[in-house]
Design a protein that fits this description.
This protein has about 500 residues and is an alpha+beta fold. Helix content is about 35%, strand content about 20%. The chain contains 16 helices and 23 strands. Strands 17-18-16-15-21-22-23 form a seven-stranded mixed β-sheet. Strands 3-2-1-5-14-13 form a six-stranded mixed β-sheet, with helices on both faces. The longest helix is centred in the C-terminal third of the chain and has 27 residues. The chain is globular and about 65 Å long. The model has no long low-confidence stretch (mean pLDDT about 95).
């Protein structure tokens, strides 16, 4: 039997490929960043062709680092930034426009027009999502209207839409020469176009948003063989056997297979996902109802999700745009030079506020400033913003599900930050637990691919692989905890109504 399963993790800022063994241990990896393109305020784009190039590079790099070939791979899984939208010509294989990233807010006018009749929850009973710029459907419609001749070409069937999983899978399996045009239920559930009950595209919603059905990929499960790598390609002959949106993949990699289990990923944004089993739980508190995963022909498993737009990207902004730090790790060093935030609160509503507010009119604010506040206080306020936003989502999830949090499983790039993790435990008043293998997003995609080809035979094998690494326990006085949180909630209100009709 082949020795490893590979995962392609196509994220917001970079693409990685990681090889895992049967114990779920990373054996080798490679990673390359790609450009962040900001044409104007609120617009965020990626170059799809660049991402395809970097994907091939990291796959080749990971294989080289492990000193193995494609014959040593049992399967490959894909996990991806979810709502990022790309449209391309099926005949040439070229994107007709830069990919529009999940953080982008340019489709607000279309969302407002749709919400004028029925409100922001117009489609929520069917798709589990509010009308928001976050999701793919309005982005597709914008591209078709912005590019000359695109809408007519899409209606003729000459254009294809995909989130980044679909774009990579199509290219890996042949592209213009027979590439497979599919997505999985987790990514489809983030488009505003998929009915959660039928797991099929909703023709009425697609028509109202302005998306021709002819350009949409087939919806498949999260764990099955969709095709094999094209001959002569970087994954020639290897089964492509899983697709999971990044947050669902992290949930799967954390072995959250039972209803009531969940995790929080600290990445570009933060994403708290709670497995609700086969029940679709409607949210009355600003959360999303989404598909958690589906294994082959088994019943789909659903989840509640709290999506936070800006967490790790705030640290990136401090580094790249303000020059406050030289590298991401320095933010913790700087934060540790002070004992607290000095009364400063940083609300990073750069793309509006996601869960639990869904306020597209909000913009970032730094409040509570005095002459006492220094660089260390700003660094600490930036880190604390992540923990405060997470608590808001935890409280919304408790209200929707009735589940009391006993501990929080965490993963993502920011969990190496000890100061942040301790503050998170203090603010939630529950332990925070980081697994031994922190690369849970890629691991989840690898697990789903391995299950599809028999590399792993059961979820029990995957549960046995999960082991805790580091645990943080709360130590903050209750009065102080509630005072800090009360001040945060006050700071959030200062961001509202910044964008008006003018």
């Amino acid at each position: 039997m082949s020795s490893y399963v590979a995962a392609i993790d196509q994220g917001t800022t970079s693409t990685r490929c990681i090889l895992f063994d049967r114990r779920g241990t990373p054996i080798a990896s490679d990673q390359v960043e790609h450009r962040q393109i900001f044409p104007r305020a609120g617009w965020v784009e990626h170059d799809g062709a660049e991402i395809w190039d970097t994907t091939r590079a990291v796959v080749a790099g990971a294989l080289a680092r492990a000193d193995v070939g494609t014959r040593d791979l049992a399967a490959v899984g894909i996990t991806n930034q979810r709502e990022t939208t790309i449209v391309w010509d099926r005949r040439t294989g070229r994107p007709i426009h830069h990919a529009i990233v999940w953080q982008d807010t340019r489709t607000q006018h279309l969302c407002d027009e749709l919400a004028a009749s029925g409100g922001t929850r117009r489609y929520a009973d069917r798709v589990g999502l509010p009308l928001a710029t976050y999701f793919s459907g309005p982005k597709i419609s914008w591209i078709l209207d912005a590019v000359d001749g695109a809408r007519a070409a899409a209606e003729r069937g000459d254009l294809l839409f995909g989130t980044m999983d679909t774009w990579l899978l199509w290219n890996l399996t042949g592209g213009v020469d027979g590439g497979v045009h599919v997505t999985d239920v987790t990514n489809a559930s983030r488009t505003l176009l998929m009915d959660l009950a039928t797991l099929g595209w909703d023709a009425d919603i697609a028509a109202e948003i302005g998306v021709p059905l002819a350009m949409l990929p087939a919806i498949r499960s999260s764990s099955e063989v969709y095709g094999t790598g094209r001959q002569g390609g970087v994954l020639s002959g290897v089964p492509l056997a899983s697709v999971l949106g990044d947050q669902q993949a992290a949930t799967f990699g954390q072995a959250c297979f039972e209803a009531g289990t969940g995790k929080n990923t600290y990445g570009t944004g933060n994403f708290l996902v709670l497995n609700t089993g086969t029940e679709r739980v409607r949210s009355d508190n600003g959360l999303l109802t989404t598909v958690c995963y589906r294994l082959g022909d088994a019943a789909p498993v659903y989840a509640l999700e709290g999506s936070i737009a800006v967490t790790g990207s705030l640290v990136q902004w401090l580094r790249d745009d303000l020059g406050l730090i030289r590298d991401a790790a320095e933010v913790e060093t700087l934060a540790r030079t002070v004992e607290d935030n000095g009364g400063a609160y940083f609300v990073p509503a750069f793309s509006g506020l996601f869960a639990p507010y869904w306020r597209s009119d909000a913009r970032g604010a730094l409040v509570g400033l005095t002459r006492y506040v220094n660089r260390g206080h700003l660094a600490r306020a930036a880190l604390e913003a992540t923990a405060f936003q997470t608590r808001e989502v935890v409280e919304a999830m408790r209200a929707d599900s009735g589940v009391e949090l006993s501990e929080l499983k965490v993963d993502g790039g920011m969990v190496v930050n000890e100061t942040l993790m301790q503050f998170q435990a203090d603010l939630l008043d529950v332990p925070v637990v980081r697994p031994e293998v922190a690369e849970t997003t890629a691991l989840g995609a690898a697990y789903a691919a391995g299950l599809a080809v028999g590399y792993w035979n059961s979820l029990d094998e995957l549960r046995a692989n999960w082991t805790p690494g580091r645990r943080w326990t709360p130590s903050m006085d209750a009065d102080r905890r509630e005072h800090l949180y009360r001040q945060w909630r006050k700071a959030v209100t200062k961001t509202f109504d910044w964008i008006d009709d003018e």
